[in-house]
Amino acid sequence: MTAYTVQCGCAIYQACVVTVEADTLDAALERAIIAASDSDAWKLIDHVGPTFVDAVIEGRDLSPWRDWQSAIPVPHRFTETGRGAAPADPDPAAGDHPGGG
């Protein structure tokens, strides 16, 4: 059998609710982004995205990245936008890997 080093990922969503004052919606959104970036009030949201493959290479314990892309092209169905990703764990606080699988 062939060994492959695979980098997997999943989106773990966090949120930070801030209140800002501004004269326009654009100004409020800009201020909110700055305020949230500076805040320590971020909280984990229950939704966790599916596990997907970022990059892969043949071999053991190697970097799967070459020139800012996967060393071996990842078939679309295993990518973040593909349909073959593992289902998400509905409760990330339950332990196990947050992306499921």
Question: Describe it for me?
Answer:
The protein is α+β, with helices and mostly antiparallel strands and 101 residues long. The chain has one domain (4-94). The protein contains one helix and six strands, in the order E-E-H-E-E-E-E. The chain has one helix spanning 25-38; strands spanning 4-9, 12-15, 43-48, 52-58, 65-66, 69-70. Strands 1-4 form a two-stranded antiparallel sheet. Strands 2-3 form a two-stranded antiparallel ribbon. Strand 5 and strand 6 form a beta hairpin. Mean pLDDT is 85; it is low at 94-101.
Helices and strands in order:
Blueprint (H helix, E strand, L loop, with lengths): L3 E6 L2 E4 L9 H14 L4 E6 L3 E7 L6 E2 L2 E2 L31
Antiparallel strand pairs: 1-4, 2-3, 5-6
